Structure formats: structure tokens, C-alpha cells
């Protein structure tokens, strides 16, 4: 359930009362009278010979109007669809820019930058969709003074990245409206660019302005011998989306840590493998490792034998297989990355750089990464909960890694394997996924109130679908003083309505009575005729006779508790209602009602069946009289899934079943049935011919259950075997000392 | 005619106006993207020769980027791996030593010291500690900042803790020590290494603390939407409709009356705007307590405990440079989100901020999480009620092992329960009780905690479930040795029964005393109720607490009343996690106090569960036939108020003091079976068996079953055991007839005199009946029943656990005749052999007859 508008809730307009409608009609009539009076004075009286002239004029104007309309709408729809607007060019044709040797170089990166100091948020301005606008500089080829290019023009990956941004909702081609600028200078790999000249190229970008609001992408930072963990190109205030940040270079809340894309992924097809126990417990597949690590790994393998597999480069490669696709352990060769799927845990060790492409392969294989790279800032660690998908081990604990991993329970490992695969699918899979996740993170910082939640980032889709999120999750017992609002839905049974009002008004905790007058053909009785009661009574007239009017979030409801009650429920005693309210206070997120009903699975018909017999189980309560939180009114009116609301209004039935479904679906909790009551009407009242009527009723109600279950996509109702009674109900105890003595009739 | 002409003229005029307007103002054009000039680039181009592009890395580059030794920490930055030696914590987990105060210290640091010493991580020896804490006092003169401590070692494994911005933190190089500081600025804060604390007011309580002020889930209609924090600690409320004035203060005339007392205004406002310029975070806690959603405008300080708390769920961090944007976002925030943020803010206040003790313990828990690595709290445990302080990661890290998350996630604990029977000092072997409990459907094991002075009997009765005897003495002895100074004593300690015994294999525990008296059906029903409310205690006997005006303190009574707030653990279901929580999280002082008198232990357990769940326990019915077995621990009743209060009675006040507030919550309801004491069925059953006869004497098997009720056919709630001769298993899936359930058992079944059919006996079934066929649900369906409607009944069936009621006391023929007369069912199909109404005694009437099976009746499972 997402996205209901607060404004809707606060200023809901229920159907206009009749008096108002009449008033509105009156105003229109007055206007037309005025027009009649003033008309002749304004327009000269027309003569017959002018008629043709006028008709011609009129038709010309009409034609023009139609033509304009077509002109307005027609061509745009063509223009905005398809590849029409995308230009096709050759990489060789890009314009050349010669950088003078003395052109300015930006300052080195400012380590103290934060969003509120270095980022110009004014550029992002007011934006109803809460989406930043990203501008991409046009591609140019920069050469130094001697004509040597400063970098390779553009790599396949960077081109993919820019295409992804350009195709996304973030893109704008209007440089003046942009909030974030992405240069088209490819910085992904520092090895393939000249540091100083690239910086000069950045500095002469048209909106550079010390790099404010510029986003640079880099995956392989640093170079020999010291391998800095951030891009060495001076970049002043520009944000850096870098692979391989360490905690010393990463500006928390400003930079974005991204993964190192593994091009191997595109070549190999690695289908998902379920989280089962795998052949090897721990695997190391990296080839270029520091000798110290090699020794540690060899020691690990010696100690734990078969469970640990340490792979290295193959010395004698067979023909035709690229080196990246083979790994060897003593003469035995393995296919990479397929071998990763044979292991439960896979090591990701620090190389010269902190960010390793192997992490992506490991995640993809559903192998839990064991990250041994001190101070490495994991990709997207700002939003992703890596605790759920990886094990981080300090480097000095590397020799203990086996025992650390052994202590993780089986169930948690399986959960981590699933999570690792999900991270890969969602955020590592392609350059596009990396680019969009990066922009989303920056977007969330600029519009934090519209940010994506932890669950949206981290929960796999299966979990998201399967889980409930109770909107009233805080354990809270509302104060009794607040009372409840009774809503009586009525059509025209005035006599019985008045009896209900009188009865309900005796309940001590009632704070307001709302009568929803659902009859448009008849006015409610005059004020003087209504029973005099101690609480405010309001009559709301509806525009249409609909059952869903009962569950409308009227502004008049000021209490949290709502009692929905039919206009013919005269049997409920004041004790029963008061007790029902007390029970609701202890279970404010549930439906609390009197007669209970059950849904059953009919094995013969293979569908659900409605059951009103006297059973030991309850899964629904009738809303002919039921307490619930007023928030569910809002949900029913605005958030009911599918066409259930209209369906209920059209069939004039099952609004209570719909409410039961809705509440159970959103809270995942069962209803509470209160007191032994089975029916609202007396048992003797059922007529003989009521039986057949009853049976069609049952069939209809069963249909409702089946319909709703298919719309919800599941059966949310929960079956329980208990009901709530007062503590001393039917106990051997003096009646007059009991709080709610008048309970217990059917 | 004229009017037509006039109309057309008007139409023509307006149409031409429209035309002109459309031409003149292209703004009005509906299609959004403005037409571009030809030739300008639109979007990133698609390269015709894209295949020429190279990959960003050379083929081998990603594999071999040249090995390099690990780098050493540089320039003042610290991170956990380098500056904190976690290996010192490996052995016994986190052990914390705190440097004692030197000289007189002010109130807040004293509270901090007390909190650390009360933590379960605290150790008195600096040598075995892996974390050493130095508490800075705000009144330490700047000259004395230098820590001259023997174990300092450059600050390694040290935590410098300051609840106020202390001058020492600025001027002093703390080296490798972690800093836990109130409202640290983002520039100096080292994520993952330092800990951000909230800025606490001077008078912040040590324990318990003020409860949240949120009274209801949703905001009241028509109250102030926004409260704006002011310089001098007050708040100013602003209505729903206002512009950007809170920022520049130019709207003095717009806002309502100035409120300077925060408590008076705040609980009503929905959003609390807190400027981020100065780290005056006192406002922040006020807002949390009031359940007002904090809206932080570009805070320069790190939010408290940001390492583990997901603040996006409880607060809004906005940019003050975009005031209109922020206001629009707040005004249009969906109601769902507002609800969630309010509740989360309130939950965080209660879980982590309401007392100094909670703040300190949260700090230690964060460091414990860092040390423990993979077995740290998952994010869910930190960010949903009841919070990580109450969900111990040493117990489990999987949410489904805890009692709290089942209802949140819409699931329900499955499985069985373990009965834990405590035999006290003078107790006898509870044979009857064991039989009754072992007969329950979901019973997995019975544990007898033998603390009696007598030796346990050598032989225990044969039960269908495994029975284990735990030696209470042995446990107790070892338990006492652990405590210094007490030595080994043979006095039984009441809190022993709440130790987390490893023998308990199920989530649910049925805690029993040796002299408790329960029937099988009561146990079955209570367990089903517990499954619906796994985080609460579900009990049979209750106490209630009350405020005693005359004594000026709390009291409690075992008298039956319309309300209750505690259930007796002498017969109650609860989650086994509460044993762990009881033993490991309660302060030692409270446990010692409780050990001195058994009723105190009950009170303490109830306090604990209520403090965790903030909900009352649940009462289930307790049959009148147990009334002679008085609950053993009835405390003094209020009638005896004139007498001096017994020591036990006073423990509730000491507990309340220990918790800092009264956590107990009263409930006014009891959960009964749906058809409990149904008036109509009572009416009918009276008609069925007149005159009622006394139940026959119990059989020799010492099975304390109540007499079964006469239940009208259509509402028999339990397993039917019908054996229609000659029917075989049918090919459909999931459906079998009775004869395949018990092949060849017919001959051995005893015949009931007077009844043409059979009643099945439970003995021996579990031994040789094929167990697999008993799994699942037994669905008992009568084709025809009362009022001509069908009814269905599902009942979980366990191998060998079918039970049934006492044989009929009336001649069956007469019952049958009466049934025929009473129930309007034609023909011979009425007869159903029913045995074992599992809930029958709870339903309050007696079965005097068992009706006979109809050959056509089937069972499904």
C-alpha cells in the first residue's frame, strides 16, 4: 500500500448534502436571468441577410479550430515516441578540442565536502516528481597541445552508462534546468588516461564551476606504485562514484561507492542455483594475490583439506580458452566463473586496489563473499545492508576465517546466498543497473523525504511480496477517554434507526454519533424528531446509495475507534458495546465484531466457501456492528485493491467481507470475535421461506470470498479458535460485581 | 431563432479568441516537450560504430592489478580493523571495564558510570576487559584532560564517552580511542568507529524514563501540523496553511500563540522542524518523546546511533535551502507514511533514548555488534519493536526465533510445546499432571525440574512423549558458585525455573508447578491461543495490581476481579526466549530480590514480559473443577490492608523502582473457545439429557479427564473416530476412509454395551499403526446435519494421540431417540460416533452419550 495523498485524507469531500446542491442550482438560474436581461444590450440584433455570413464565419472558425487541435496533438505523439529523436552518429565524427598546456587545472578533491557544503541544491529546485535532472555533456575528443589524446575517446561501458542515464527519467537535455552534470570524459579506468590533461579537460567544461554538481564515474582508481583508492585526477568539488574507496578517501554522504563491473558477466551464462549445501565450503579464486595471503591460504587449505579450495592461474592453458575463464589447483583445471557455484563462501581479498571485479562474479554465483580488505567501502554501502549478504573479516583474522564461517548457522548462510544473488541481479548485473542505483542514491540525498526505504533496497521481491506491513505496528493501548464514533448507515427505517440511536447512546464511551443517510429520495427527519442524546449527533447525506458510504473517512470522525452499526441492530446491549470497545482498545489494529463467520475450502468444488454455521473457528466478523480503527476507512475508500469497491457497490453485498479481507491483508492478523453472539436478529425471526433465501445468500457470499481472494492474489484471512469474553464471564461470581453482566445472549 | 444566432455568434467569438490565444501563447500547448531546433543533440547519441568501442579495462587488467601489501593507517583516520583489536574480545565476548571516577563528579557522569556497571558486559578487572571506557565529565578543567591511565596504550581499545560536548574532545588528541560523543559534527565523526550519542538533558532519568507521549496512532484532525524549534528551547506551532515563514521569522502575525512549554504543545503537532545550524539536539529528543516527526534541516551533526538506526523510518532529513520543497513534501506526505514515521519515532524513544541506561547500553550493544561480526543484530531487530536491547543477539539472529516478529510479519509459530514442571522443595511427583499434559495434542516433551529435597522417583509413568528429569539441585549449585560470596547453598531458588535450559527444544514453554491441576483440553486450547499471541504470556490464573492510596504504593492481589495484569507462571504458556531474557538482561539486584520469595519471581517475570511487549497477558478459561486446587501463591488481599504488609507484597514496589516505571498493563478480557458455554447449546443439551447424572468415578489409569459433555451433533468440536466397515482408501489425493487409518484394528476394539458401533481406544495406536497416515488434518464431514446444512470440522491429528471421552452414562438408545426427536434430520444418517471432544469440558457441558456411526460417514484428511 503506497502513495496515498495526505491532502486527500485531510480534505476529503464527501458527497454534497442536498441543501448545497439546491443552492448551486439556484445560482446558475440567476445567472441566466441576468444574461437575458443584459443580452440585447450587448449584441446588436441580427438581420436575416447576415445569417449566411455568420454561418460561414462560424464554420470557418470551427474548421480552423479542428485543424489547430490536430496540429496541436498529432505531431507531438509521433515525435515523442520511438527512436526518432535519438541521433545516430559515428564516434569518429566527434569534435576535437585542443587543450592549451597552461589551461587551468582544478584543485585536488576537497575531503571535507558534504552535500550541504559542496553541493548546490538550488539547481535542483522545486520539482513535483522529486527527481533530479541530469545533463550529459556532448562527446568531444580532447587532445593536448601536442595533439596527443588525453584519454581513449570513450569505452564501451561508459557509453552504456551514458546511454542508460540518457534513457532514464533523470535525463534532461536542457543544461539550464539540470541539477547534476555528467561529463562525457571517460574516467572509468585511470590507467587509460593522462591525469593532468584530463583534469584540464574537466575544468573547461561549460558549467564546471569548481566541479559543483558534477558526477564522475570511476571504477579502477589509482596506479602504480601506490594505487590510490580514489581517482587521482584533480576534481575539486565534483562527486565521485568510485569503485574501491577506502574509508580514508570516501566522503561519507557525498561520494558514492560503486562496484567494479566485471565484463566477464556478459560472456557467460550462469543460471541461478538454489541455496543448497555446496561441494566446497570456502573458495579463493583470485589470481594476483600478495604472497602473504597466498601463504595464509595455503595454510588454510592444509588445515581443512577438501573443504577449502584455493585456485590460481593455470600454467599450461589449452588452446582457445581465455586465461580469464580458467583457474587451476595443482594440475586440476576449473572453469571460471562456474566453479564459484560449487562453493558456499568465496574469498574477496584485497589486491593492489580495494575494489575487485571478482565480487560481482561471486555474488552472481550465489556464493557468499568473505571480504578481507580492511577499510574497503563496500559498493552502495550507503543503502545496501551488506551484513545480510557477506561476511567481512579483518585481514589479521584471516587465519581464523574458517572457524568464523563455521559458526554461522545453516539457515543464515542460505539467507545470505539468496541475498547475494539478489544484490547482483538488482545492482551489479549491468552497467545500467550500476548507473541507476548511483543516481537513485544521489536523488535520495537531495529529496530525502521521497527516499527509497531500506526494505525497498534490500528485500528481494519474494520477501517484499510475502511480507505484511502493519500500519499500526506500535503496541499502544489508546486511552479510554477518547471514546468511539458510531456510524449508523441507514436508508429509511427511521423507527428502528431511532431505537438504535437511543440504545447506542447509552454506551458510556460513545463520543459522537454519525448517521449516514443513504436515501437520496427522501429527506431525513427534522431535527426535532431525532431522539435527544447526550453526545453530538450528525447526519451526513450521501449522493448515491452505496454500501461503501459506510466506510468513508468522514471528517467528522475525530476518534480513532469507529463503531460501524446497522440501523436494525437493536439487540446489542450497552454492556456488549462497551465491552467491545474495551476489547478494541487492546487490539486497536484488528476488526472487533460480534457474530463470527468462517471461510472454508471446499474440496469438491475446489474453491472457497462461506460458512455461517456454529463452528469452533472464526475468520471474519460481520460489520453490522464492529469496532475498528478509522484508518481502515481510509484504506477501504482509497486503497482497496482491484475493483472490489465498485464490485461491492454494484452487488450491494459483501462490504463486510471486503473489509475483513482488507484488514487481514494489511495487518496479517486475525479478527477478534466478542461475546457468544451468533446473530444480530433473534433466532425466532427467521421465517420458513428464509431458508432458500438464506441459501442464495450463502452462495453469493461464497462468490464474494472467491472473487476477493483472486483479486488479493492470496487468502489473507486468518482462522482463530477463540473469542473474547469479560474476565468473569459465566464464572461463579456475584453478578452485580461483574463489570459487564449483561452479556451472553445470542 | 434569434437566440440561436446569438448563440452561434458567441460561440464563434469565443472560438476565435481561443484560437488566437492558442497561437499567441504556446505555453498552453498540451504536449509537454517543446519542439527542438533541428540538429541539436537529443539525448545521448547511438553510435553507428559502437562495436569499435573498447572495454574500459584490458582483458587481464581486472585479474592482475599488481599485488600490494596492506596499507597502514594514515593521518588520524581510524577504522575498526586497524585501531580496535577485536581479538581481545574473542574469548568471552565483549567485556567492558570503566575507569572509576576521580574525585567528585556531577550527576550525569555518575549515571553513566552506574549504567555501565549495571550492564551485562561489565567486568571489574581491566586486564580481562577488551573495551576500556573513559567517561569525561563536562566540568573537567581543560588542563586535566590528559588521560594518565595505565592501560591507555595510545587509546587502543578505548572508548571515550561524553554525554555533553566536552572541551577535552576538541583540544586533545585521542589517538586510537573511539569517541562516543553527544551530537558529533559530521566532519570529525568517523563512521563505523565512533558512536554518535544523543544530547541528553541534565535531568534525564537513569532508568525507565518517561514513557512516550503518543496517545494514539494517527494524528488528530485539525491540530497543528508543524512545530518549529526555537532558540531558547521552546516550540512554536504553525498551522497547516503557511508559507516559508518559519525560516525567516517574518511571519510573526501568522502563527498562533507562542508556546514555550514543550510538553504542552508538542504531542499535538505532526512534524517538528529542527534547524540544523547549531547542534542543539535537545529538541530532537523532545520531538521523539512526543511522537512528533523530527524534520531535521541540514543537520551538521551525526544523528544518534546512525550506525544501526535507520532514521529514514522515523525522521525526515530535509534541506533548509529548499523550504518550499520541504513544506510541500510535508503537506503532501501520504498518510501511511505519516503514521509509520510517528510510530517509529515513538518506538525509538522508548527503546533507546528514554533513559541514560538505555543510551549507554545501546552504545555497548553497537560495539558488541561490531565485535561479533556475523552474529550481530540484523537491521530488522534494531528497527522494529521491541528493539535490539531486548532481542539478544546471543540468543539468535534470526527473527523467527524471537517471539516478537511473528505477528509483525503475519506469521504464526508452528510446532509444539515443552511442559516444564517444577517440583518444589516439598513436592511430590506430579503423576496426574504429567498424564494430563502428555495427552495434549501439541506436547513435544515433558521436563521435570526436580528441586525437591526427596530424591526423584526411580520410575516415571509411561507417556507418549519423552520425559526428562532435570536435576534442580545440580543446576542450582553451579548457579550459586558463580556468584561470589554466596557459596553453595541447598536452599532452592525460585528463579531457577526460568533458567534457559538447553533441554528445552521448542519455542513454547508450558510452565507448571507440581500441584497445578489442568486438563488436557485446557492445555490444548491455551496452546492454540498462545500461537496467536506468541509474544505474550497465556495463563489460567491471574493476579491484578492496583495503586494503594493508603500505603502510597503498588499492591497486587489474587482475588478474582474484572481486570488482571499478571498471570501465574504455575500454569502459563510463554516463549522460551523469556527464559534467556530473564537470566541475562535483568539487573542482578532484581533477580536476587526475586529469589527471596517465590511470588516475587512471578511478579518479576510478568514485569519483564510487560516491559518488553507493553501489552497485557492473556487469560484463558480455567475449569471450575479445579477450584478445590487453590493456587498456591495467593498474595495478601486488600482486605487485610490493616495488617502489616508481608515482605512479598512489597516486592512489587521494589520491582517498579528497579524498572523505573510500572510496566504492567491491565486487561479486561479473557479468550474463550468460540462456542464456550453457548447458551443455546446449553439449552439444547439440557433438553437432551434429563435428568443429569453425576459423572462416573474416574478410571484407574489416573487420567484426570473431566466428564465429557453432551454436545449437539452439529457442534461437536473434536475428532470423530469412526470405523465404517469395508471401506478402503480412495484414489483421490488427500482423502482416505477410516478403514485405512486403522487397518485390522477392528477386532481389538472394545464394544460399548448398548451401542451398535465401536469406540476406539487410544492405547496401543502409537505403537503399530502406520504413523505416516496420521499426519495432517482429519476432516470430519457429515453430509447432513442439523437444519439440513453441511458442516465441516478440521482438527489437527497427531500420531497416536487420538483421545476420547468417558463412556456414556445413559443408555445409548434413549439418547439416540431423543436426538432424532430433537434434530430435524430425516432418515438414518444422523448417527455419528464421536469420541474425544477435545474442547468439550471447556465448553461447559457434559456428554452423556456417544452417538453411533453411520456406515456412510467418511473421514478425510
UniProtKB/TrEMBL annotation, chain A:
- So where does this one cross the membrane? 52-74
Q: Which GO terms describe its cellular component?
A: endoplasmic reticulum membrane; Golgi apparatus
Give GO BP annotations, semicolon-separated. Answer: heparan sulfate proteoglycan biosynthetic process
User: Which residue ranges does the record assign to the Glycosyl transferase domain?
Assistant: 484-729
Write down the SUPFAM superfamilies for this protein, in alphabetical order. Answer: Nucleotide-diphospho-sugar transferases
Which keywords does this chain's UniProt record carry?
Disulfide bond, Endoplasmic reticulum, Glycoprotein, Glycosyltransferase, Golgi apparatus, Manganese, Membrane, Metal-binding, Signal-anchor, Transferase, Transmembrane, Transmembrane helix
**Which domain of life, per UniProt?**
Eukaryota
Catalytic reactions on record: 3-O-{[(1->4)-beta-D-GlcA-(1->4)-alpha-D-GlcNAc](n)-(1->4)-beta-D-GlcA-(1->3)-beta-D-Gal-(1->3)-beta-D-Gal-(1->4)-beta-D-Xyl}-L-seryl-[protein] + UDP-N-acetyl-alpha-D-glucosamine = 3-O-{alpha-D-GlcNAc-[(1->4)-beta-D-GlcA-(1->4)-alpha-D-GlcNAc](n)-(1->4)-beta-D-GlcA-(1->3)-beta-D-Gal-(1->3)-beta-D-Gal-(1->4)-beta-D-Xyl}-L-seryl-[protein] + UDP + H(+)
Q: Which InterPro entries match?
A: Exostosin, Exostosin_GT47, GT64_dom, Nucleotide-diphossugar_trans
Metabolic or biological pathway? Protein modification; protein glycosylation
Q: Which EC numbers characterise this protein's activity in its record?
A: 2.4.1.224
Task: Give the way it sits in the membrane.
Answer: Single-pass type II membrane protein
| GO MF annotation, one | glucuronosyltransferase activity
* Domain Exostosin GT47 residues, every copy: 129-408
Q: Which family does it belong to?
A: Belongs to the glycosyltransferase 47 family.
What is annotated about its quaternary structure and interactions? Part of the heparan sulfate polymerase, a dimeric complex composed of EXT1 and EXT2. Could also form homooligomeric complexes. Interacts with NDST1. Interacts with GALNT5.
User: Per its database record, what is this protein's job?
Assistant: Glycosyltransferase forming with EXT1 the heterodimeric heparan sulfate polymerase which catalyzes the elongation of the heparan sulfate glycan backbone. Glycan backbone extension consists in the alternating transfer of (1->4)-beta-D-GlcA and (1->4)-alpha-D-GlcNAc residues from their respective UDP-sugar donors.
Q: What is this protein called?
A: Exostosin-2
**Species this protein is from:** Bos indicus x Bos taurus (Hybrid cattle)
UniProtKB/TrEMBL annotation, chain B:
Alphabetically, the GO molecular function entries are: glucuronosyl-N-acetylglucosaminyl-proteoglycan 4-alpha-N-acetylglucosaminyltransferase activity
Where's the Exostosin GT47 domain? 107-332
> Which controlled-vocabulary keywords does the entry list?
Disulfide bond, Endoplasmic reticulum, Glycoprotein, Glycosyltransferase, Membrane, Signal-anchor, Transferase, Transmembrane, Transmembrane helix
Instruction: Give the record's GO CC terms.
Output: endoplasmic reticulum membrane
Entries under PANTHER family matching the protein: ACETYLGLUCOSAMINYLTRANSFERASE, EXOSTOSIN GLYCOSYLTRANSFERASE 1
| Function per UniProt | Glycosyltransferase required for the biosynthesis of heparan-sulfate (HS). Transfers N-acetyl-alpha-D-glucosamine to the nascent HS chain (GlcNAcT-II activity). Appears to lack GlcNAcT I and GlcAT-II activities.
Name recorded for this polypeptide: Exostosin-like 1
